[in-house]
């Protein structure tokens, strides 16, 4: 019950202190984190947008250039010239020689019926008919055409650029193939870091260039191009591993293709995330340290409080006990004194009867002996009662040190008288081995009585029941020693070291205050003597009180 | 002649009565008083008392007060304090105010008589000294 109270206090202390000290820190942390995240996001989006725009315009320029070259050829050459194989081959050879890296794989001339009349390039495509190809009509209708990437007859991903030749009725088409690998290279240069990706998809989300991860050219992508609207846009996508991928898209090729650039958060702007991580680490470590410190301090505080409370309670109990003893003492003294007066009267009356009995006329009476025995019995019991009242008075006397003429044997005798009943009940035999001629010393009788009372009581408690206590006095040069030896269970060294410490007790809680031996120790010290303990576990215990022989002043 | 003239002062009437009988039997002249006031009146009123046996604890004027009064009115009379155990201290205090000795109650008869004899002897010695001094004084005046 009491423990729960302390736990509650401990919990309150810890929670309030933690809240007050960590709250602002966490708030600051969150604010910092938020700022960092925003900054980070803006930065990465800017980067992606910039990259997407520049890359898309590069691709657009690339395509426009090729289209322009084809347009120029169509404008300057006639259909008749170009449809001759050798002319076309020469032109193709010239173009590739003059403008290397133009990326043109082949050239072809197709008439209005779709027949490829002339072809210059690595494949054998001359004579093929393109009339059924979807792009064919488109070219005739729009004048020029750039296809999506497709496999075609050659089964290699490629893009064709086709331009319609000048015509009224007999239209023709100049067609060139661009190796899609060139797009791949161009687009791939925008792949940043180890997780950045860049690729082109068409309006149906089909890969036009090979992505770095997850997907192949002409395969379906998980991009929905319509999400990106009509301009340039950056989207955030959560990934499986908890990462956030920023995906930027921008339209090119007149809105037919979407250039996609993506980047995982944390990969880009590394320093920013490092700073953020460091700040987080510092805050988390700081919080942990604060919590540990608070818990430790609170624990120490509460433990201290608990100990102090315990000592206070013990002290209070001790004070209550002292009050009780004092009240009891007062009452005992009052009773003893009131009984003393009638005892004195009885004693005197019995004495008077004894006096009268000694007269001649009574001696001859037949009941003389009976009278004499009765009177001596009365006197004997008056003496016994007086002894009791004297013990009670001696016990009740005040605590201030006061030098009396003390006969140690007599003090012990009185103490044993008081405790004999207690010992008898527990079947404990108290044996006395008193030295015959002990000098009367100047000491405090009542305090000595308290010391002996404590020691003998302890011995009785240690034995429990059925045992023997031997009390011996001796004169050793300038000291009188009184030893109290019991045949109880004894005690180990570890306990022996502590028995004179205040509040140390081996008795059950509430039964011993742990002050008895401590008080005895200080009393004996005050009287100039020493108190020692002998014996070990299993061999009983002997307390030895040694008092200096200080002769009382002559009166 | 009696061993000594004494006065027993105690509020406990039966005690005083019994003691008186026993002490009288042992050749002591005993006068009784049951309070400090009564004792004082008798002493001032020309009592032959040499030794007063005075109980410490009495209602009204207690033993110590009575002792002080006796010592101031009739300084030559010796006083033995009689006490229960609890008032040993006041008995010792009484010694400071000029009591001859103190006795514990209940007391042993022989012990009491020894003490009383000693006290009476002291008183007589004292008186003798004073008388001698007076005689010397008177004789020295006449050439």
How would the blueprint of this fold be written?
The complex is a heterodimer of chains A (555) and B (143).
Chain A lengths: L1 H75 L2 H4 L2 H14 L5 E8 L4 E5 L13 H9 L1 E3 L11 E7 L7 E8 H9 L8 E6 L29 E7 L5 E9 L4 E8 L5 H88 L2 H4 L4 H29 L7 E3 L1 H18 L2 E6 L7 E3 L1 H19 L3 E10 L2 E8 L6 H4 L19 H11 L3 E5 L6 E8 L7
Parallel strand pairs in A: 11-13
Antiparallel strand pairs in A: 1-2, 1-5, 3-4, 4-5, 6-9, 7-8, 8-9, 10-12, 13-14, 14-16, 15-16
Helix pairs in contact in A: 1-6, 6-8, 9-10, 10-12
Chain B lengths: L3 E6 L3 H13 L2 E6 L2 H9 L6 E5 L7 H11 L4 E6 L4 H9 L4 E4 L4 H33 L2
Helix pairs in contact in B: 2-3
Short descriptors:
heterodimer, A: alpha+beta, Beta-Lactamase, Heat Shock Protein 90, five-stranded antiparallel beta sheet, 51% helix, rod-shaped, B: 143 residues, Rossmann fold, 5 strands, 52% helix
Mean pLDDT of chain A: 83
Rg of chain B, Å, rounded? 16 Å
Instruction: Please outline the major beta sheet of chain A.
Output: 5 strands, antiparallel
Shape descriptor of chain B: globular
Q: Total helix count of chain B?
A: 5
In words, what does this structure look like?
The complex is a heterodimer of chains A (555) and B (143). With 555 residues, chain A is α+β, with helices and mostly antiparallel strands. Among the domains of chain A are: 46-178, 2-Layer Sandwich (Beta-Lactamase); 184-270, PAS domain (Beta-Lactamase, 2-Layer Sandwich), CATH 3.30.450.20; 402-548, Histidine kinase-like ATPase, C-terminal domain (Heat Shock Protein 90). Chain A has twelve helices and 16 strands. Chain A has helices at 2-76, 79-82, 85-98, 134-142, 180-188, 270-357, 360-363, 368-396, 408-425, 445-463, 493-496, 516-526, and strands at 104-111, 116-120, 144-146, 158-164, 172-179, 197-202, 232-238, 244-252, 257-264, 404-406, 428-433, 441-443, 467-476, 479-486, 530-534, 541-548. In chain A, the strands form four sheets. Chain A has a five-stranded antiparallel beta sheet, sandwiched between helices. Chain A has a five-stranded mixed beta sheet with strand order 11-13-14-16-15. A four-stranded antiparallel beta sheet of chain A has the order 6-9-8-7. In chain A, β4 (158-164) and β5 form a beta hairpin. The mean pLDDT of chain A is 83. Chain B has 143 residues and is α/β, with parallel strands linked by helices. Chain B has a single domain (4-141), classed as Response regulator (Rossmann fold, 3-Layer(aba) Sandwich), CATH 3.40.50. Chain B contains five helices and five strands, in the order βαβαβαβαβα. In chain B, strands 2-1-3-4-5 form a five-stranded parallel beta sheet, with helices on both faces. In chain B, β3, α3 (63-73) and β4 (78-83) form a beta-alpha-beta unit. The radius of gyration of chain B is 16 Å and the shape is globular. The model of chain B has no long low-confidence stretch (mean pLDDT 87). Chain A binds chain B through residues 333, 336-337, 340-341, 343-345, 347-349, 351-352, 355, 382, 386, 389-390, 393-394, and chain B through 12, 14-15, 18-19, 21-22, 25, 57, 84-86, 105-107, 109.
């Amino acid at each position: 019950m009491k423990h729960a109270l302390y736990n509650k206090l401990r919990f309150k202390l810890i929670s309030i202190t933690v809240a007050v000290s960590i709250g602002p820190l966490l708030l600051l942390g969150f604010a910092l984190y938020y700022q960092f995240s925003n900054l980070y996001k803006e930065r990465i989006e800017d980067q992606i947008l910039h990259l997407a725009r520049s890359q898309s315009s590069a691709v657009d320029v690339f395509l426009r250039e090729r289209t322009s070259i084809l347009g120029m050829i169509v404008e300057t050459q006639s259909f008749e010239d170009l449809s001759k194989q050798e002319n076309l081959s020469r032109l193709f050879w010239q173009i590739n020689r003059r403008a290397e890296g133009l990326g043109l794989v082949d050239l072809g001339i197709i008439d209005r019926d779709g027949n490829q009349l002339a072809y210059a390039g690595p494949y054998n495509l001359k004579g093929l008919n393109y009339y059924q190809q979807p792009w064919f009509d488109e070219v005739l209708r729009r004048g020029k055409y750039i296809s999506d990437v497709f496999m075609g007859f050659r089964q290699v991903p490629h893009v064709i650029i086709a331009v319609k030749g000048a015509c009224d009725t007999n239209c023709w088409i100049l067609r060139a193939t661009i190796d899609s690998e060139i797009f791949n290279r161009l687009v791939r240069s925008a792949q940043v870091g180890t997780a950045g990706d860049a690729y082109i998809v068409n309006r149906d989300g089909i890969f036009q260039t090979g992505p770095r991860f997850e997907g192949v050219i002409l395969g379906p992508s998980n991009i929905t191009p319509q999400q990106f609207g009509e301009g340039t846009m950056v989207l955030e996508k959560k990934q499986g591993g908890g990462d956030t991928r920023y995906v930027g898209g921008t339209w090119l090729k007149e809105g037919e293709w979407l250039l996609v650039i993506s980047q995982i958060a944390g990969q880009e702007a590394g320093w920013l995330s490092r700073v953020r991580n460091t700040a987080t680490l510092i805050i988390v470590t700081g919080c942990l340290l604060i919590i540990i410190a608070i818990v430790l301090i609170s624990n120490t505080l509460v433990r201290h409080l608990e100990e102090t409370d315990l000592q206070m309670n013990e002290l209070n109990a001790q004070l209550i006990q002292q009050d009780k003893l004092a009240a009891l003492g007062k009452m005992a003294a009052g009773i003893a004194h009131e009984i003393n007066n009638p005892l004195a009267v009885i004693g005197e009356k019995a004495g008077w009867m004894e006096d009268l009995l000694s007269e001649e006329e009574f001696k001859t009476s037949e009941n003389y002996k009976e009278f004499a025995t009765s009177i001596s019995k009365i006197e004997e019991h008056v003496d016994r009662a007086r002894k009791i009242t004297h013990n009670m008075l001696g016990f009740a006397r005040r605590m201030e040190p006061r030098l009396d003429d003390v006969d140690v044997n007599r003090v012990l005798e009185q103490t044993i008288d008081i405790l004999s009943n207690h010992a008898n009940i527990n079947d404990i035999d108290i044996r006395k081995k008193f030295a015959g001629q002990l000098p009367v010393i100047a000491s405090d009788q009542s305090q000595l009585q308290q010391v002996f009372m404590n020691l003998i009581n302890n011995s009785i408690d240690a034995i429990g029941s059925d045992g023997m206590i031997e009390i011996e006095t001796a004169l050793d040069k300038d000291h009188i020693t009184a030893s109290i030896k019991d045949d109880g269970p004894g005690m180990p060294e570890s306990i022996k070291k502590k028995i004179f410490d205040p509040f140390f007790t081996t008795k059950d809680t509430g039964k011993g205050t742990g002050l008895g031996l401590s008080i005895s120790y200080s009393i004996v010290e005050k009287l100039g003597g020493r108190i020692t303990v002998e014996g070990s576990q299993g061999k009983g215990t002997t307390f030895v009180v040694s008092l200096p022989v200080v002769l009382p002043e002559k009166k | 002649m009696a061993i000594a003239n004494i006065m027993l002062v105690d509020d406990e009437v039966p005690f005083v009565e019994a003691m008186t009988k026993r002490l009288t039997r042992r050749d002591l002249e005993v006068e009784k008083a049951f309070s400090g006031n009564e004792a004082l009146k008798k002493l001032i009123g020309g009592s032959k008392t040499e030794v007063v046996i005075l109980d410490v604890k009495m209602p009204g004027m207690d033993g110590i007060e009575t002792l002080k009064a006796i010592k101031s009115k009739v300084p030559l009379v010796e006083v033995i304090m009689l006490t229960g155990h609890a008032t040993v201290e006041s008995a010792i205090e009484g010694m400071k105010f000029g009591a001859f000795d103190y006795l514990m109650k209940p007391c042993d008869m022989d012990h009491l008589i020894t003490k009383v004899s000693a006290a009476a002897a002291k008183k007589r010695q004292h008186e003798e000294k004073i008388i001698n001094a007076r005689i010397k004084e008177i004789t020295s005046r006449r050439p």
